[in-house]
Amino acid sequence: MYLEEIIDDIQLENDKLECKSRLNREDVVGWLKTIAGFANASGGDFYIGVEDKTNKLIGFGRREADNERNYFNNQVNEHLTPRPQMKVSFVRYEIKNSERFIIRVQVFESLVKPIILKYKQIPSIFMRRDGYTNGATYEEIIEMSVKSKNSQYDILVSDIKYNPDKISMLRAFYAAHNDGQELKEKALRSMDFYNEEGYLLNGATLFLDDYKGKKTGVQCSVFSGFNKGTERIVTINRFNGNIISTITDTMEFVNQRMNHSLVKLADSRRNIDAYPQRALFEGVINAVAHRDYYLDGTRIQVDMFKDRLEISSPGGFYRGEKLGKTYDLSGIISKRRNELITDVLVACNVMEAAGTGFDKIVEEYKDANESHRPYIYSSSDHFTLVLPDLTYEEGVENSSVPTLTFVPVPNGTNLDEKVLSFCYYQARKVTEIAEYLGVSDSTYLRKKVIGNLEKNGYLEKSKLSRAMFYKTVPEAVTLR
């Protein structure tokens, strides 16, 4: 058997893929540098129990797989600093009626760089590029060091001098949202729009009338059905330019293409937009304010489907928070990724000084039913806001509880199947799980059921603000 037979949609030619039959005990650096290189770059998948080049499955028995995973974790903990963000899971398969496992290590781009490999007291820094792992260059180390200090892109000083005549679009935008008031030089200086020598900060350059770079790119698409994979693209537009123009272009694109309907009241009619204007505007502003401007070659994605609008911004939640999916938008606490850009948008009165704007979105959808509730989900490299189409009666239908099969969990309980099914499509809080099961939020539920499922790799835990969420690991189960 081969890897592509048990992993759906795997891209074997992807330069973010590496396989090892076994972890070489005699050459630990040989495979540890791959993990470090993935973390210092943009992440990747590392499979153990799979033959290199051919991708033939070698596999392990259950006990051997557990030992190999423990050895892997021990070596990573001993030699890599700081420990990379990873998810280690078992992938089960059968051959000749015998149960076998391979180990999948998903390495995410590190939030703190560089990841240093230290072996025999000798430190080294590696980078993954074009399918190979090599020593990082001087320039790459400097770039990683800048990021590791949590220096925000927008507050670094550029080499462009401030010219008050080059921000006419920003001045007009400010006036339009501040009852015609003029944007004063004092306000710009208070935001550190430019430094004492007159040089603009990086974030300020993105507001220039003649900005031609790619940092602000937005791609807007309309699909004929419910997903990207199988539906026809009706239209696609790409917008570049300064931040003000991309906000305006994005709003116009959606407004020109969204659905509208009428609701009959007792003595009148009321117009309904597919996406409430304030919710739409808040979603676009949020994506612009919180995108990761370090990520070159990326765009904000605005995708219109038959039942919803998705606004995806490059970069996960700032400082690493991630979850599968949540409707609790009000519980998301804002952490600024871009201080200057946020300050400018706040001054323009299109963004709150504190908060994400999600409260306004919730308010706009307060009268909607369960299938029309907005939600957000994120990963390590993007976050997405989903606004259901209020003119589509069926709403967004992707929250059903599936039926699963899985290898019995060691020390498992009779609640395991219900918990895994409930958490398959959506990350859940313990209180939500307890309510679904009809049991109390007890120590038994938290430790013996949920804790045991997490310990054995069936559930993964993530944190959003102060709340903990649990989501089923897809590789640990099978949909019936």
TrEMBL record:
It comes from the Bacteria. Residues 13-133 form the Schlafen AlbA-2 domain. InterPro entries: RecG_C_sf (IPR038475), Schlafen_AlbA_2_dom (IPR007421), Schlafen_AlbA_2_dom_sf (IPR038461). Pfam families: HATPase_c_4, SLFN_AlbA_2. This is DNA binding domain-containing protein.
